[in-house]
Amino acid sequence: MGLTDLVEFWEREVKPRFREVDIESMVSLSDGSEVKYVNLDNAATTIPFRSVIEKIINSLSEYGSVHRGSGQHSKVTTARYEHVRETIRRFVGASSDDYIIFTSNTTTAVHLAASLWAQRSGFILVSDAEHSSNLTPWVQHEHIKNNGRVVREYNTNPDGTIDIEQIRQCFERANNDDEKIKTFTTNSLRIKLLAVTGASNLTGYKPQIYELAKLAHSYGAKIFVDACQLLQHEQIDMLPDDDPCHIDFIAFSGHKMYAPFGAGVLVGPKDFFDGRDLPAPFFGIDFLNLVYGSVYQLGGGNIPYIDSGGNVLRPKIERAHEPGTPNFAGAIAIEEAIILLEEIGMNRIKEYEHQLVALALDGMMKISNVKIYLPKNKICYPKDETGDYIIGSVIPFDIEGLPHKLVAEILAQEYGIGVRAGSFCTYELIRKLKGITKEQDQEITKEVLSGVTANIPGLVRASFSMINNLEDVNRFVSAISEISGKDIGYYRQRYELDERTGEWRVK
Ligand SMILES: Cc1ncc(COP(=O)(O)O)c(C=O)c1O
Domain limits at 10? Predict the structure, then answer.
């Protein structure tokens, strides 16, 4: 896309699909003036498409209880809710043997999967560059169910990228360990699941998920992809079940794909969720219904019967994993967002966003005291789209001599540009990128325990989506250029630091 194409794409394809108040809102600056807001915090959450809001409002006139009523409204609402599963199935290329399970967000989707995976023998392998939502649930559930067993963590390269050969060695080592203990225990030391991000929320780095899937399968393991920073930017296809590169599980959040109404999704094989891969029933009793294949959270709506002996029976359907009254509005919001993403075209969205980020990067790289934390040899779009690459939606950076939280505050207060500063729930990756030593980490830990969070390492993250346009990029680059031309002494006269939190406020 040339510059004119970028302008045209935004005017024709993007602008009409959002409400003006959402994409052209004005914000007040510290000097009292008003400017058009530039939202560069799209990786945190996204604004809704206009028709997502309209669809929710329109469907509320026939709203009724999902799955629990006999009235017309209940039936219409239930049918609409169930229909969303099929739209999602098609969008992500899931098979008819997969369940599409609604959750509240990616975090609860990972918890759900982790609670069931913890019933299986073997280890979970995660990378150290994951968002904590794709790390701590695995650790927590393995720890609880497997008597303190921890997950195996794979160390990414210093820039947070993945070396597939290293992962292969992790599988190999686990198999060797398993061989050694085989005679003493039935508990496997093999890796049962590789959990990996589809796109890093900090660097935008996209691991080669299909190659990783092939590798995991060759060792009899499955792959789980945290797709919540991926599928709003480019197509993800889970591929047919018999394809060696098939993605077994994905999780994502509606609020990161223009449907911010509290729903997330977990997709994975029915057999897994129903516990069919677990040991066979004993003595003809269908333990699947009672013990194994138990669900993440039991409650109303996902149990057909509790017998007089207190035995909880569960249906072998996806609803068994959706406790309580489901989030109908969140589900139909996701469906409408998918319809719009497809209408615009995922490839065009990807191309548009990549061009914008490439322009922003070009501008940023010309500013001498700006440091960009992207894996340098992976910045290859649009030259080479094979392999892993990073240009997508995120630019992590800082400015020499200026604390990251100050830079974010200046951008908001003086330029009306919203970014995020912090560690983005990727603590190990941030430590790597910032070169934090073990000793420094220990100091930081002591401080945090005493309530001081000011020295937790962090960066500034500008995250783009299709709602951004050329004007946003130009305003952002020129703001960074101006800010980087001034020193901390200049800004200390205007902003004051909270020594405990590291936050800066206009004086
Ligand atoms: C890569 C990644 N995974 C998981 C999450 C958690 O998503 P949610 O807050 O919707 O549960 C986020 C949120 O920022 C993320 O960026």
Answer: 3-36+345-506
Q: Which stretches does DSSP call E strand in 301-453?
A: 305-306, 312-313, 370-372, 394-399, 417-418, 420-422
Q: Which residues contact 216 (CB under 8 A, 6 or more apart)?
A: 171, 191, 193, 194, 222, 223
pLDDT digits over 402-415, tens only?
999 999 999 999 99
CA contacts within 13 A on the Cβ side of 22: 18
Verify that 402 and 442 share a domain, yes or no: yes
How are beta strands 495-497 and 504-506 bridged, if at all?
A: antiparallel
pLDDT in tens, 148-185: 667 888 889 998 989 999 999 999 998 888 887 766 66
Q: State whether the beta carbon of 461 lies less than 6 angstroms from ligand 1.
A: no
Residues facing residue 253 across a β-bridge: 264
What is the domain count for the chain? 2
What amino acid is encoded at 165 in this protein?
Answer: E
Closest C-alpha residue for ligand 1 atom 16: 201
The strand pairing partners of 195, in sequence order, are: 126, 224
Cβ within 8 Å of residue 148, ≥6 positions away: none
Question: Taking Cα atoms as reference points, which of 257, 251, 264, 252 lies closest to residue 337?
Answer: 257
Rounded-to-integer distance, Cα 336 and Cα 75, Å: 20
150 plus 250 within the same structural domain? yes
Residues 264 and 349 in one domain: no
| Ligand 1 contact via 228 beta carbon (within 6 Å) | yes
- Tell me: pLDDT of 287 over 50: no
Give me ligand 1 centre to Cα 98, in Å: 22
Mutate to test the pocket of ligand 1, among 42, 228, 428 (most ligand atoms within 8 A of CB): 228
E-strand ranges in 112-233 read 123-127, 152-154, 191-197, 222-226
| CATH number where 11 lies | 3.90.1150.10
CA angle, corner 413, sides to 408 and 417, nearest 5? 60
Contacts of 434-441 with C-beta under 8 Å, sequence gap 24+, read 434/459
Does the beta carbon of 226 sit less than 6 angstroms from any atom of ligand 1?
A: yes
Q: Which atom of ligand 1 is nearest to the CA of 200?
A: 1
Residue 415 near residue 64 (C-beta atoms within 8 A)? no
Last residue of a domain, one of 335, 365, 387: 335
Distance separating alpha carbons of residues 341 and 320, to the nearest angstrom? 30
